[in-house]
Amino acid sequence: MSIRLKTIIGIVLIETIALAIVVWANLHVLVQSSDQLLSEQARAVAMMAAEPAARAFQAGPEAFRRETRRLRGADPRLAWVRVLDPEAPNPESSREYIVRTVEIRDVQDEENTVRVSLALDRTTMLAARDSALIRSIAIASLEIVASIAFSLWLAGWLLGRLTRWQSASQRIADGDFSQRLSVEGNDEISDTALAFNVMAARLSSLMDQVREESSRRESIEAELRVAREIQDSLHPAA
Question: Does the reported pTM lie above 0.90?
Answer without folding.
Answer: no
